[in-house]
Amino acid sequence: MSLKRQLVEAAHELDRRGLNRGSSGNCSVRISADRFLVTPSAVPSLEVTQESIVCMNLGGDVIEDSPNLQQAEPSSEWRFHRDIYRKHSGVGAIVHIHSTFATSLSCLRRDIPAFHYMVAVGGGTDIRCAPYATFGTDELSNLVLQALDGRRACLLANHGMIATGVNLSDAVRLSIEVEALAQQFLVCLSVGQPSILTSEEIRQVLAKFSNYQNPRQK
Ligand SMILES: [Zn+2]
User: Fold this and answer.
1) Catalytic site residues?
2) Per-domain residue ranges for the chain?
3) Which residues, in sequence order, are CB contacts of 2 under 8 Å at separation 6+?
4) Which of 8, 60, 119, 175 gets the most CB atoms within 10 Å of its CB?
5) What pLDDT is stored for residue 69 in this prediction?
6) Could you tell me if 156 and 178 are in contact, meaning their C-beta atoms sit under 8 angstroms apart?
7) Closest CA to 54 of 45, 46, 66, 163
8) Phi, psi of 69 (to 5 degrees)
């Protein structure tokens, strides 16, 4: 399946799963060391087609692959996609969603601590929440890069979530995991304070994950 087709399928799947609604959220896939495909601006996920997918380089320029067709505008949030690909050569795909539970937690501006061992799927001992900045800005992009330092996913305050992967299915899978963790953490917070694993306990999980679950570390 072509990468354009995979990107369209991923956008549709996120909508079908209820992780995205309307035209919020966006996703992208790397096609070479310095180019990526990103979903278009202001198009509902279910209406994204291969023709509306936009190709960009890491300089932030739109690459016109078919001059006869009217070129769609890239997602207004293309900057953090570009900057993540620039900084992390191992990232092959990025999913950004405004899913209900991750977004709710982001509005509380809470990191997700090691309340459950699966927090380690994010690559570290917690999943950080990046401070708030206006969508589409360099400021937000810089905050995202800091929150993703040593991590594969993060929350964005009063906004949503970003999950990265070696490919689109990896990034979509991680976004589903993080949404589930956000839901579980919110349920815990609604009745009390969950017990947090010790740094030694979560480091043991990270070591096990690096042995058999994290393809980037193989
Ligand atoms: Zn967004």
Assistant:
1) 77
2) 3-217
3) 50
4) 175
5) 64
6) no
7) 66
8) -90, 150
Compute the distance from residue 135 Cα to the ligand 1 centre, in Å. Answer: 6
- The Cα diameter of the chain in Å comes to 59
Among 120, 194, 112, CA closest to 161: 112
3-state helix, strand, coil in the chain (%, to 5): 45, 15, 40
Question: How far is ligand 1, taken at its centre, from the CA of residue 187, in Å?
Answer: 24
User: Tens digits of per-residue pLDDT, 110-136?
Assistant: 999 999 999 999 999 999 999 999 999
pLDDT at 218: 37
Ligand 1 centroid–CA 183 distance in Å is 19
pLDDT at 135: 96
The pLDDT of residue 213 is 56
Q: How far apart are CA 195 and CA 175, in angstroms?
A: 24
Classified by CATH at the fold level, domain 3-217 comes out as L-fuculose-1-phosphate Aldolase (3.40.225)
Q: How far apart are CA 162 and CA 156, in angstroms?
A: 8
Report, as ranges of residue numbers, the positions in the chain whose pLDDT lies below 70. Answer: 66-69, 212-218
The per-residue pLDDT for 68 is 59
**What is the predicted pLDDT for the residue at 212?**
66
pTM (2 decimals)?
0.94
